[in-house]
Amino acid sequence: MLAVTEFTCPTLTTVYKPNSQLGITPKFIAPDSVPHDFQRGSLSNGGGQGGFTIDSVDYVIFHSPYGKQAVKGHAQTFRTLSQKASLSDKNLEKAFINLGKASFKAQVDPGMAAPSVSGKRISLYSFGSGCAASFFTIRVKGDTTELREKLDLTNRLAAMKVVPCQDFVDALNLREKNHNAKDYVPQGLVDNIWPGAYYLDSIDGKFRRKYVKAPVA
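== Thiolase-like protein ==
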């Protein structure tokens, strides 16, 4: 556990504000610290010669705020120097990323395609806002074909619409403008709502929210 501040919300009448300086610290420290803590625990509990390493698993799954952090987090599993040195030296960071490229391609990338994992050992990392991150391993038993087919992750990602960053900024500004609004009908198009998903239709004078289900294609 780390005592960190990622978002600040002085009053409930204002939308939360990210603290960039404090918020970025756990994003870098957690993916680096947690796997190494797991490795030390494996050694202390008789985890075999050498304990846990990234080669102990078939696939590596990262939950992180953004994709680049997964790359950096995986690279840190190859760290042999102090954490402080590896986090502050960009040349070392690049060296670890290059060192882990083959492993990333073989163990992390396939996770996005939901491969056949029956009988495989997988490590899972949960970001936990950096302050309560966790790392553990599982071994999959049974057939996962139905789950993989229903998830259809690769096709769903390919079908997503890519928009300019400014569209995201505009959406955040609109959200901040209408924070705690009542007697409110959201603005904007609903064409991009996933079929079958629920979205906010209106908020009445008593702050009661009405949701509508998007048509299923």
